[in-house]
Amino acid sequence: MTAPRFCPQCGGADLHQRCPPGDTHSRLLCARCGYVHYVNPKIIAGCIVEHEGRYLLSQRAIAPRPGTWTLPAGFMEAGETTEQAALREVWEETGVTAQITAPYSIFSVPRISEVYIVFRATLVSMADTWGEESLDRQLFLPQDIPWDNIYYPAIRQILERYIEERASGVYGLYTGSDEHGQLLFVR
Q: Where does the record place the Nudix hydrolase domain (predicted)?
């Protein structure tokens, strides 16, 4: 994210990186009016959509990594709930209307300031077309998933774990980060 050149509050051009009094992080501050410019993580919401033992994946048409497969997910918009964002992204990327059944995973990627929220969902209906961000969308049996062509290692881990848990009928809620490649179970 590009830092502003002018203060969004007063329009002044005297912006400097400093740690505000009582804060723990360096922030962009306006010397003229005292405005503090916060840069916060982006939230990505999506779903593991299941239908008759198959799992919905979309094939990316856009950077990064066009041609790879992923769970349908994307950036949350202002004014949306995480559930609304997840369902909207599923629709936009795959033409699938889904119904959320439960939260499944929350993980952070601090080096790129992103937080991923993934829900369990079931397929309600599927349109004949999908959005331009996807080259294709398919429902895969577990053995047919293009595992070596999954966009992001954490997405692969989430999907592998979900499929194992579905087989046992016991699901967890997971939190963690990609820094150490570890996700923590939360009861």
A: 40-162
